[in-house]
Amino acid sequence: QSSGHRSTPKSTPRSRSTPKVSDTPRSNDPSNIVTIVEGRGLARGEIGMASIDLKNPVLTLSQFSDSQTYVKTMTKLQILSPIEIVFPSTMCDNGNMAQVFKFVNDNFQNSNITTVQRHYFNEGNGLDMIKRLVMKENSSVIMDVTSKYYCLAASAALIKYVEFVQNTIYASESLRILFKGSEQTTLIDAGTSTVLELTTNLTYEPQVRKSDHSLFGMLNRTKTQGGGRLLRSNILQPPNDVETIQGRLDIVEELSNSSEIFFGMQSVLARFEIDIDHLLSSLVQIPKQETDKTREHHMTTAILLKHVTELVPALCETLSEGKCELFQAYKTSLQDARYGCINDMISRTMHVDARYTKGHLSMKTQRCFAVKQGLHGVLDLSRVTYTELIEDINQLISQQAEKHGLPLKSAYTVSRGFHIQVATKSVQDLPEEFIKVSKTKSTYSFTTEDLIRLNNKVEISIKDINLLSDALIADLLVEVRTCIGCLYNLSEIVSTLDMLMSFAHVRTITDCVRPEFTDTLAIKNGRHPVLDRILPEVVPNNVYAADGTNFSIITGPNMSGKSTYLKMIALLQIVAQIGCFVPAEFASFRIADQIFSRIGSDDDMETNSSTFVLEMKEINYILQNCRANSLIIIDELGRGTSSEEGVGLCWAISEFLLVQKSFTFFATHFLELCRLESIYPNVENYHLKIQHIMTTRGSLRKVSYTYVLTKGHTEEKHYGLQLAELFNFPSIMMSQAREIATRIQERSDASDAVTTAERKRDNADYRFATKLLQAARSSKLSSDALKDYL
């Protein structure tokens, strides 16, 4: 058997390659494991995928048809950020890699790629496991997946693999299982999310974390681990259901308008300091072998469970102050009688003062005294012994302090246990009986032979207490699992409220507006959401696209702001669809089912792909997958080949996209494309203005960038030459370059076709008709205002 980073040989699961679930409640490291299987023969391209987070017991199943470049697979994996990806060994038999295996292997260098024997991918076993593990209120998922051969096969391998890796089994009827075949989300491919800097920024700045100057960094004001994860997944896959989005916007508006609800909610959510998903994972995983560590883990789980369920009434009370439908729906969900049942179960077993606290020693003490007194006589005696040992340790340290005349104090760490500390300024030479001395800048740490013996007795006493307590706590956890469904609901509610609180916080510190959703994209004075937060001033711009003008061509010199403008459009679309207010004076959006981009022109040395090859790959993906409700941004297409071929390709691609009715924003230096406006009525030309300013001496001309979008194509000609002049090239060379460029331009202008009056009239008729249709579908004007508009 074999497994590990970049490993590909045939193997069976083993536990060394994948990290164990951390016991730290607030640990937020990625911990997803994914299994992938692909159909063979005629079913090639049909992908089955199963994933589970080791800290969140939600099993997610997917089955879908993917393209030859496996973009959907790559996108799902990017969202999951898995620590391990498992394939059947047949994917790389005899060194022959299947295409999907090769794509994943090349694109996920930080994930362990592991193969297991093909017989683990068994759809019959997968269905049996799902029937055994799914919680009762979630059992309808069985109907969804019964005929999904590939995702069932992937789930069988995943569950078996996790049990090997973690050395645990999942309790029956304890998992939430989701099938996401055709979910109501907007698809954003991995390349687009990278270019738009959705979760990490591309510019390296040592003083800035990679996530800070990204969309995620700008919006993330969450208080809980689950809220942060939900925000990230929503940014990478925004919902496209209008009802869901409007419900979120209602909550954000009410939270930001009512300081009482806002601060009340903030206070309650801050007390949910532990990761509820991680807690659920600990609750449903049953170790195959009991050890001292697993017993401690059970005790910690019970204490955290008590902490979380005690906060439900406070959260419910805060929700009752809200008026939104979603607030009331959450309140009703939290009034589930099962929360009361769980609290009753806990109160019968656990001490009323048992609390989650920070610090190893504090938590150790809480575990020792978590079980109620009087339930187990031997346990009570063991705790008396433990208390006496702690008193003996304190007395020993006091005696040593008195004996040597030093201000000694007790300390505790996991590695050393109880030991003694003294400030370095209080002593010059330590007595010889102080052993295992370590020194920091301000403190000596050491112990004695007697203290070591007492530490050993303390450890034995704690093991006895854990063993006796675990018998009662294990029964409690079994009872709680019968009500686990309400805890999944609690986790979802807390995460969603935390994310929406973050949106409300953003609204209170930013000048923004609630977005509307119509069949038109119209933004007045919109601002780039990331730059708006990190720059002192951002130039706002308008955006418009509708059925009658769905294709916008944007021209302008280098550095005039074309790329930033395109990214702003896509980012504002995402911000609106996740349910957040947008930085603008007015914003109306059409729901996008996919967001595509073609930005950037770097060669890819890893795959030996030139700029032009990369451009063609990306644009081909867009052409194959775009639909009427897609949003497409394209920047500088065709620069990787000759200008004649570049213009020809851009023209043909533009004509193809014109027919699709996608909202397309096409930034280019090829001014020939601007002639499309005179041929097609749904094309609009825009440009980013620049100004020419003479210096005070009047001898030099300076270019000033306004970053303002203006209708019509740019009147600037040879602006590449103008930029080159700033670098002080020889004047003779620049004169010759300008003369040659002018000749070519004159020849091109002479060959232009003259637009007829009939063509202009047809275009005007078309645009007038589309405006009438738009008013009929989306207008909210009164009758008098509508008459004035007409």
Word description of this protein:
The chain is of the alpha/beta class and 790 residues long. The chain folds into six domains: 152 residues, Nucleotidyltransferase, domain 5 (2-Layer Sandwich), CATH 3.30.420.110; 197 residues, MutS, DNA mismatch repair protein, Chain A, domain 3 (Orthogonal Bundle), CATH 1.10.1420; 86 residues, MutS, DNA mismatch repair protein, Chain A, domain 3 (Orthogonal Bundle), CATH 1.10.1420; 201 residues, 3-Layer(aba) Sandwich (Rossmann fold); 34 residues; 37 residues. Helix content is 47%, strand content 16%. It has 28 helices and 23 strands. The strands form five sheets. It has a seven-stranded mixed sheet, sandwiched between helices. Strand 10 and strand 11 form a beta hairpin. The N terminus is likely disordered.
